[in-house]
Amino acid sequence: MSCVEWQGLVKLLEADDWAADPDLGVRAAVARHPASPPDLLDRLATDADETVRGWVAANPASSPDLLERLCDDSSPTVRSVAAWAQCW
Hints:
Helices cover 62% and strands 0% of the residues. The chain is an all-alpha fold and 88 residues long. The chain has one domain.
């Protein structure tokens, strides 16, 4: 990892801005983690990648309001997961 990359990672960690991480794997891991805070899940629910939005929908920490919004997602997969999660 270069010095510039390391400095960027340190800034990201200090800011706790996991939703802005350029790595899809990081955003997906945060989206599915049950301890992710509601405001972070709200931001990840608008991620450009449907994988991240799908993990938000499957996260038991997602609020009923957030699941309702995800039921209107552009992705059929995300809509399906959100609808299923509302039945838990």
